[in-house]
Each structure stands twice: as C-alpha cells, then as structure tokens.
Amino acid sequence: MNSKMKDEYLDNLFEAILTLETPEECYNFFGDLCTVLELKSLSQRYQVAKMLSEHHVYSDIVNETGASTATISRVNRSINYGNDGYAVVFERLKRKEGGE
C-alpha cells in the first residue's frame, strides 16, 4: 500500500474490520460506516476484479456489472500493478471453497 495513505485512522479502521466475523456483522458495520452508493461502488469494483481474474472480456463485465470501461481499466491496473490485495483475497477464497 502506498505509504502516503497509511495513518492511525486507517489502521484503526482496518483493525475494526478485522474483528468482524460474519456477513451479517459486515452488513451492519458497513451499513453504518458507508452510504449505499459507496457500498455499491465498492462491491461493483470487487465484482469487476473477480470477473477480470476469471478472464472475462470488458464487454461482458460492462453488461453484467454496469461498470464503466474506465472503472474496469482502473481495477485491471490495480490487479496488474497494485499491491496484490485482490490476489490474496481470491487465493484465500479459492482455498476456502476447496476445503483446504
């Protein structure tokens, strides 16, 4: 992560997120923390990343998610040149689904 982003408030937020144990707790916490539009935007970016990692083409991603090609490009750039955050999550989810 860009060291310019790191600060005490962000550390506190991430520590709070790490205490959540169930999807229901996530719905409650993020519902309090974020606006509906912010949550929709985050979930859309995550879905775009998931589809890109599954090798879907831009036109399919636009049709399914409603994301702009600019958003898809930004997410793709993060996947290819970012901090590997998506890769860590996708790998852990894959292991979890496989029962490992």
Protein traits:
single chain; 100 residues; mainly alpha
Beta-sheet strand percentage?
under 5%
Determine the structural class based on helices, strands and strand pairing.
mainly alpha
Distance between the termini: 28 Å
**H-E string:** HHHHHH
Question: Could you list the spans in which at least 5 consecutive residues all have pLDDT below 50?
Answer: none
Per DSSP, the total helix count is: 6
Give the integer mean of the pLDDT values: 95
- Rg measurement, Å: 15 Å
Estimate percent helicity.
Answer: over 70%
**Molecular shape:** globular
Q: Main beta sheet: strand number and arrangement?
A: none
According to DSSP, the number of beta strands is 0
Organism: Candidatus Faeciplasma pullistercoris
Pfam families: Trp_repressor (PF01371)
Protein name: TrpR-like protein, YerC/YecD
GO molecular function: DNA-binding transcription factor activity; sequence-specific DNA binding
Produce the secondary structure layout.
Layout (H helix, E strand, L loop, with lengths): L7 H11 L4 H11 L2 H18 L4 H8 L3 H13 L3 H13 L3
Helix pairs in contact: 3-5
How would you describe what is shown here?
- The chain is mostly helical and about 100 residues long.
- The chain contains six helices and no strands.
- Helix 3 crosses helix 5.
- The mean pLDDT is about 95.
